[in-house]
Amino acid sequence: MATITNQVQKAVKLSRELLVGAYRTMYLSRQVDDKEIQLKRQNRAFFQINGVGHEAIGVAAALHLKPGYDWFYPYYRDRAFALQIGQTPLDMLLQAVGSKDDPCSGGRQMPSHWCSKPLHIVVQSSPTGTQILQAVGAADASVYFSVVQEAAQLASGFYADELVYVSMGDGSVSEGEFWESLNWACLRKLPVLYVVEDNGYAISVPVDAQTAGGSISRLVRSFPDLLVIECDGTEFVESYEHCRQAVEYIRQRRGPALVHAHCIRPYSHSLSDDERAYKPEEVRRQEAKRDPVTRLAKYLLSERLITEKELKELQTSVENEVREAADKALAAEPPSPSTVMNFIYSPSVDPTGEHFDHPPKFHGEPKTMVDLINACLRDEMARDPRVVVFGEDVADCSHAEDLARLKGKGGVFKVTHGLQRHFGSARCYNAPIAEASIVGRAIGMATRGLKPVVEIQFFDYIWPAMMQIRDELINVRWRSNNVFSCPLVMRAPIGGYLAGGAIYHSQSGESVFTHQPGLRVVMPATALDANGLLRTAIRCDDPVLFLEPKHLYRQTHNRAPYPGPDYMIPFGKARLVREGTDVTIVTYGSLVVRSVQAAKTLLEEGIESEILDLRSLQPYDWELISASVKKTNRVLVLYEDNISWGYGAEIAARIGDELFDFLDAPVKRLAGRDVFIPYHPILEEAVLPQPADIVRVTRDLLKY
Ligand SMILES: Cc1ncc(C[n+]2csc(CCOP(=O)(O)OP(=O)(O)O)c2C)c(N)n1
Q1: 606's torsion region: left (phi>0), alpha (psi -120 to 50) or beta?
Q2: DSSP annotation string for 152-219
Q3: Alpha-carbon distance 195 to 261, whole Å?
Q4: Is 0.70 surpassed by the pTM of this model?
Q5: Cβ < 6 Å from ligand 1: which residues?
Q6: By the 8 A CB rule, do 236 and 292 touch?
Q7: Cα of 166 to ligand 1 centre, how many Å?
Q8: What is the 173 CA–ligand 1 centroid distance (Å)?
Q9: Which of 219, 499, 517, 551 is surrounded by the fewest CB atoms within 10 Å?
Q10: How does pLDDT run across 175-222, given as a tens digit for each residue?
């Protein structure tokens, strides 16, 4: 590495101003780390993770990038990068002390989780590697804006040669999401600059025990159109030159680039770690010789670009700047406990409000749920150029040139049929089979102002995306204190009663998602509700999981005429399916129609049941549940998912808690049994609630 370095240094002539400026940022970064460590030791900060040893590659990369123009996803070691892009020591120290004035999160996130809207540093998180798919999504947005130009004007703006920077450690590249991201970035030749900052360790695990062959750049060289560059990331001039080449390649739209930069990590992983426990002394000594800050100082002195005196003055001025910033941060106010629930959802757009209550104007013959979901997607894509649809098999035909002679696929359930043909391949396209990347990329696109409406082909396969949903999608707004948001819609066919769907095409599991703050969850039971709720989902400002009971897709009993392009149903409003006085049945999804069937039998016995179809599961209509239970004094909570810890368990618990005085019988639950959905219809029937079960349980409830 040393020989390459000397050659590069000789070949590249950088101005004194640039080199001294770079040194200043690198030294500043080191000083902020040292200050934070001091604050942590004094218990005035609560966590510390450092960027020591990564300063040269960080500043070198940043110097080729444009704040507020390019987009940045820097990981926690990128302190020097963030400083060079424009974050200040005060920003950083306010985050370290957790002040309400921390511009990144108002005291909600640990330090070194960079974020600045004006600079285009998208709010970062802690899971290793999740940012990579989002960065690729932000680059997808670039491509989208270059084709659908009217969307660019409505969204975050767009520059023809912009790029997206994403950095990560040598351990994070073991995450599947890294590989998914590379596949997509290369498939589409996206403008992404990957910088892998390889400090040789992921906490205690050395790179040779982490990555096959010990070198990530060796492994990725076969990705088409990916420029791969390896460099000594502790050597500023070399890093600068290599990043220049990578950035130039990307701005010319030749493909993505990956810079594999060898760094050091002499301060241990974080203040909770002591690397002497696993890193031999001689390795530590070798690393110390490659300290990037010392190396650049030596270079400046040896090339007579700075004198000893000037260097000392520069260092003193940096130390003063950091001291002053620390004083200000320590004097700043902590956050108020009263603010902790702010910004879980959009503060400006309320999808439960009147604005989302828009009556239907019916046209034509009754249509199925599939037809009316498709109609809503068409309307919304026509209305707003920012709406983009992607997922597995959702396009009519990946090879658009063949469309003229083919019918087109448009989704395994045909819900998206014709969208690509009508709106073009930029606005409706197929994604690789990689659910994390479907959601992760959608997040990146949504933070730039697009409105992705993605399809998860079956709810049963949403789980690879769970990290993106649980640790990213739902908390982007909250963790950035409302600086960033990523409203989008995930559509997923859900549930059983298919006869033959079995374990992997019939799952329920909505309670896993209603448990997540920040996410709206809806599940229509009729074609009309599907149309009105999907429109609300697309126009609302929060992430929405839109669950479509696939058993209901093509039924005749739930059809409706097309309700027009403005029909909307607010979230949190249940549908009163049937009025009754003897018992309330609270249900949703495929059990609505089964309740109606049961109600007919019960009526023959003189039992009047009242049926509520919740249709919006989070938020849900407590008002209507409460009014109904107060009237009937008996309640059955009915759901398809496994009975234990299911969605209805929460409803039943709340009724028991808040409406106990109105009850003439214990709250009853009827739901799927705690097992998987089997293949044979006889077995499936034994697992899922049937109309006869509803009749039996309701009778018992009335007898109590
Ligand atoms: C998904 C996930 N798993 C585990 C962790 C805990 N963790 C935090 S940092 C880290 C090591 C990351 O190593 P590397 O990517 O090499 O970056 P470095 O810290 O060395 O710069 C781990 C395992 C995490 N944050 N996220």
Answers
A1: left
A2: HHHTT---TT--EEEEEETTGGGSHHHHHHHHHHHHTT--EEEEEEE-SEETTEEGGGTSGGG-HHHH
A3: 7
A4: yes
A5: 77, 126-128, 168-172, 199, 201-203, 265, 269
A6: yes
A7: 15
A8: 10
A9: 517
A10: 999 999 999 999 999 999 999 999 999 999 999 999 999 999 999 999
